[in-house]
Design brief:
3 helices, about 25% strand, single chain, about 120 residues, globular, alpha+beta
């Protein structure tokens, strides 16, 4: 299992993608494939065409949901703490756990996404 974060430093936005098959794709292929992911955000169309998109990957352990949630939460928190806004809803399998960093709830922006 792999968690991908596709981010734009100019826009200070990101999307999370959980996949078991994306490890075989190059970063360029992941960025070109963004159109196939449905994200519930009004700014997603502008994000997909940003010129500065980059992909960061983290492997999540299979079968250990607690460790995977903590690892994914750590990975996501690094971005959110810098002021990035995650597009879409706070969902994923396994759902990233942000509680070890003192985050009990995320700040939602309707029709855009969430942040700290």
């Amino acid at each position: 299992m792999e968690m991908l974060i596709v981010s734009s430093e100019q826009q200070m936005r990101l999307v999370m993608i959980f996949s078991q098959t994306s490890a075989k794709k190059s970063d360029k292929a992941v960025i070109q494939d963004l159109a196939s992911h449905s994200v519930n955000s009004t700014v997603y169309p502008a994000f997909k065409v940003a010129s500065d998109l980059r992909v960061d990957r983290i492997r999540l352990p299979l079968g250990d949901d607690k460790s995977a949630s903590l690892n994914g939460g750590d990975f996501l928190y690094r971005y959110l703490a810098k002021g990035y806004m995650c597009l879409g809803d706070f969902v994923g399998q396994p759902k990233p756990d942000l509680s070890p960093w003192g985050v009990r709830s995320v700040r939602k922006q309707p029709k855009v996404g969430f942040g700290l």
